[in-house]
Amino acid sequence: MVIHSVRARAHLKSRYGTKVKTIGAGIGGTVDLYQARDKYVAIKIFDDRESYESGNEYESRVTAEYTLLQKLDHPNILRVVECVVSLPRRRKVYLAMEFYPLAFHDLIMQKSTPQDDLLCYWSQILEGVAYLHSCGVAHRDLKFDNVAVDATGTIKLIDFGAATCNPVAYGMCGSESFQAPEAFSKISYSPIPTDIWSLGIILYHILAGKFPWQAARRADPDFAAFLESNIVGFDTEHEAQNLVRACLEIDPEIRVLTAALLEHPLLDKLPCCSKNTHRKHQL
Q1: What's the CATH fold of domain 102-269?
Q2: Taking every annotated instance into account, which residue ranges of this chain make up the domain Protein kinase (predicted)?
Q3: What pTM was estimated for this model as a whole?
């Protein structure tokens, strides 16, 4: 529900308590952590409207994230609580969401996290992305920072500020290291295959402990070498490398689909989860 209120901050305080701290910044806004007794909620405060936008145009643009998330229902997708719009003059929009205590980025950077556990988490990311694609939605900004883990060890895709249902996209959004080469072009492209590329980058980092290149541009020497050889290098062999190579197909028109990735036998071989059942990690 989108709530319009002349006392938006008072409404948020009455429902969610007091602000504890700012916990992040995403596309179009910052995210604060609120606490009421032992319950935590994350609240995204959207950036002010652009000078060329009317109040109604601004509200329509920023509430689109809430409208989209309200329609989605999957265990690996962020859940939203409500959207509050302050009135009447300096219109601000607040998005209340479930809070997840652990960042996937931290798990990646902790050298003690077993690789099989990270692969299990990646399979959950894949399932969330597959669900989005089945709904005609592209996330467009998949990266470590936009993946969280709840208290039971379930992966949650977050920050849908760049998400789109449009079959055509223009320009790059998000972090360069995770973006597909077509996102750097000056022509339109299909956004769903760019999510597949990002999945491949995340998986490569899980296996190799680093990024394959800084950005998928010809000016990047590591990416240029990949274009010449079409080989993604690994220090050690792992069955998941075939998944990486499928995701990092240069031509987006023949890049693998999530449905095919879900059928890969590796997902059933992981000791911590299968295609339909995930082990609950105690964090």
Answers
A1: Transferase(Phosphotransferase); domain 1 (1.10.510)
A2: 17-267
A3: 0.90
pLDDT tens, position by position, 175-198:
999 999 999 998 999 999 999 999
Beta strands in 6-47 (DSSP E): 18-26, 29-36, 39-46
Summarize pLDDT for 221-273 with one digit per residue, the tens: 999 999 998 788 776 677 888 899 999 999 999 999 999 999 988 888 776 65
Question: In a 10 Å sphere around its CB, with 0-12 CB exposed, 13-18 middle and 19+ buried, how is residue 116 labelled?
Answer: middle
Whether 268 is catalytic: no
Domain boundaries of the chain, sorted by first residue:
2-98, 102-269
CATH class of 2-98: alpha beta
CA–CA gap between residue 33 and residue 100 (Å, rounded): 10
Residue with the bigger pLDDT between 1 and 216: it is 216
Q: Tell me the C-alpha distance between 225 and 253, whole Å.
A: 22
Beta strand 39-46 with 93-98 is antiparallel
pLDDT at 17: 96
pLDDT digits (tens, 9 = 90+) for 107-116: 998 878 888 8
Kindly name the residue from 32, 117, 141, 145 that is annotated as catalytic. 141
Q: Write b or e for each residue in 252-268: b if 16 or more Cβ atoms lie within 10 A of its Cβ, otherwise e.
A: beebbebeebeebeebe
The answer to whether 2-98 and 102-269 have equal CATH topology is no
